[in-house]
Structure formats: structure tokens, C-alpha cells
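Lab notebook, bench 4. Still working through the backlog of constructs that have no structural model yet. Next entry is a single chain of 236 residues. Request: give me the C-alpha cells for it.
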Amino acid sequence: MPAYHRILLKLSGEALMGDDAYGINRDTIKRIVGEIGSVAVMGVEIAVVIGGGNIFRGVAGTSTGMDRATADYMGMLATVMNAMALADAMRQAGLNSRVQSALNIEQVVEPYIRGKAIRYLEEGKILVFAAGTGNPFFTTDTAAALRGSEIGAEIVLKATKVDGVYSADPLKEPGAQRYARISFDDAINRNLKVMDATALALCRDQRLPIVVFSIFKEGALKRVALGEDEGTMVHC
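Model written out:
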């Protein structure tokens, strides 16, 4: 029996690369879609916020002298491409999905409309949100917190490369401690890099818990949806 009725999954663009240096690895995206499908068949309503770091990252663009707002808009367009690829992989897997974009690109994807988004979820469709918040200077972490709050998600699931939140980088410090649960205030005060500060503060204010888990750990998404001890829960 799933622990949640409606979830918001935050998926980074980098997660789609697999072992490639950039772009979208088809085997990896098929595996991720399989993980999502294993939760959808339980009747859980799923919305996904997708990043674009595998194609273009706005902050990285500014390091080459590009205007930050321009770079961020380019990053948003990268998330639209990822959202389309994810939705296509879902279609091939027999999953019914829709893409909504915070940027108006109606020839390609639907615009974000909150009421329609909620109706899609109620109809059992998997919803993919693209283009972040539609504004420069805000990350897709913040978009996940915002959309999760707007659609009434019960929890935000942040899919990462590591299996939770640690006291230090576990790749650099083998003795780093993984937290099973941690409060929003502790995560912010210890600068644990769960999400950016804006996203964490929004989730805290909306009393919207976050679970950080590894998308590369087979079955982890399903275990989180079932309420099992997987990853790290950030809570009020």
C-alpha cells in the first residue's frame, strides 16, 4: 500500500546522461521510466520536474561571460527537450503522460495551467513540468518546491546520485554519516546542499517534506513511495 497519494519527483538532467559525458542515454532513460512506472501502477499520482544540466546549465553559461538571464532561459529550453524525451520514453513504455511548460511554446508542449495539471493527475496521467518556474535566477529545485506546493503533492522526492543526505561528501570522506531524518532548519543551518535555500525555505513554509534518494539504486523510488526507510527525509 503506497504511503502517498500524490508525489512530486525532482529529476536532474544529469540523471539522464548515464555514463555519457552529456545528452540523453536511452538505456538510462528507459530504466528511470521503468522505476516511475513501478510507482504509477500502484495508483500513485506522479508529477516530475526535470532539470537541463545534461544539455545546458545557466550558471555554467555565465562563467563564459554570458548574461545570466539569457543563460537561464537557455537552460529552461534544455529542460523542455528533456521533458519531451522523458514523455516519449514513457509513451513507448505504455505510460500515459503530458508535458507542461512554464515557457509558452504551444507548438511543442502545453503551457502550464494549474487546474489542467491537477485534472491530468486525477485522470492517472504522469505529468512532466518543463522550463522551471519560467523565470531566470531560479533553479529547478525551486520549481519542484513551487509546483509541488501548487498541485497539493504530499512529498517532494529528490532523485540524486547518492542515497541520501550526508554530513559530508561521502565520495571524499568515507566516514561521512548518512542522516535518516533531518529537519529543514538543521539542513539549512548546516548547509547540507539538500536543495537551494529558496526551495528548502518554501518546502519548510508549506510543510512539504522532502526525501533525498538515489535514482540509480534499483527499486529505491518504489520503496520511498511505499514509505520504507530509504534515503533521507527532510521534515519540519
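Notes after review: The chain has a mean pLDDT of 93. Helices lie at 26-40, 58-62, 68-92, 114-122, 140-151, 184-189, 197-205, 220-225. Flag for follow-up if needed.
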